[in-house]
UniProtKB/TrEMBL annotation:
Chain ranges of the LUD domain: 112-212
Domain of life: Bacteria
Source species of the chain: Streptomyces venezuelae
Name of the protein this chain belongs to: Lactate utilization protein C
Pfam families attached to this UniProt entry: LUD_dom
Lineage of source species: Bacteria, Bacillati, Actinomycetota, Actinomycetes, Kitasatosporales
Length: 215
């Protein structure tokens, strides 16, 4: 008897006393889980997102859609960024007409070329308040996964309140599991056995999140 036969035999024995009522798995198993912890207004949910992002050492900014270009220029100037990598279909009014040189992602771009870029600017698919998480799904305003992993400085614009949800279950309902999902909770960081934190090991050292209202 093979290992497969033994495993299937145990499964059959375990299910021997289960009535064959024909119920689908989704109906037979209770899925009445809490979808969020507590009740909040949309404004309170955005405030919770900002609080948890900051707790993960992301730098949080707030602005209106009319103010986003000026804010981005200030962030680049403060960092001294001379180049900014942009996805193929970033809203044209986000980057200002003047400022860092825009670098467009290309399939032929090498990791070394991406590493020389000072900053990267993207949108997001959804933001989760309870976990302080930004999710990217490779949409045209976010670009390919690698452009947000190689450059050392990532600026992510979140449209509030439309792209903000309270919990992970609510976020999963908006996401396509077939897309390349990247879940970001703060800048890239790791720690050794002595809990010495090192940032920028496998992603951006600095994450700045712009909560843009009025979009």
């Amino acid at each position: 008897m093979s290992g497969r036969d033994r495993v299937l035999g145990r499964v059959r024995r375990a299910l021997a006393d289960v009535p064959a009522d024909g119920l689908a798995y989704e109906q037979a198993v209770d899925r009445g889980y809490a979808r969020e912890h507590g009740e909040r207004t949309a404004e309170e949910t955005v405030d919770l997102l900002a609080e948890n992002l900051a707790d993960y050492r992301a730098i949080v900014h707030r602005c209106t859609e009319d103010e986003v270009a000026g804010l981005l220029m200030r962030l680049y100037a403060e960092r001294g960024s001379r180049t900014v990598l942009v996805p193929p279909e970033l809203p044209p009014h986000w980057p200002a007409a003047v400022g860092p040189v825009r670098i467009h992602d290309r399939a032929v771009s090498t990791p070394h070329e991406l590493d020389r870029v000072d900053s990267v600017l993207t949108g997001c698919a959804v933001a989760i308040a309870e976990t302080g998480t930004i999710v990217l799904d490779g949409s045209p305003d976010q670009g390919r996964r690698r452009i947000t992993l190689v450059p050392d400085h990532h600026v992510c614009v979140v449209r509030v309140p439309g792209q903000v949800v309270a919990s992970v279950p609510q976020a999963l309902e908006r996401l396509d599991p077939a897309r390349p999902l990247t879940w970001i909770s703060g800048p890239s960081a790791t720690s050794d056995i002595e809990l010495d934190r090192v940032e920028g090991v496998h992603g951006p050292r600095t994450l700045e999140v712009v909560l843009m209202s009025g979009a």
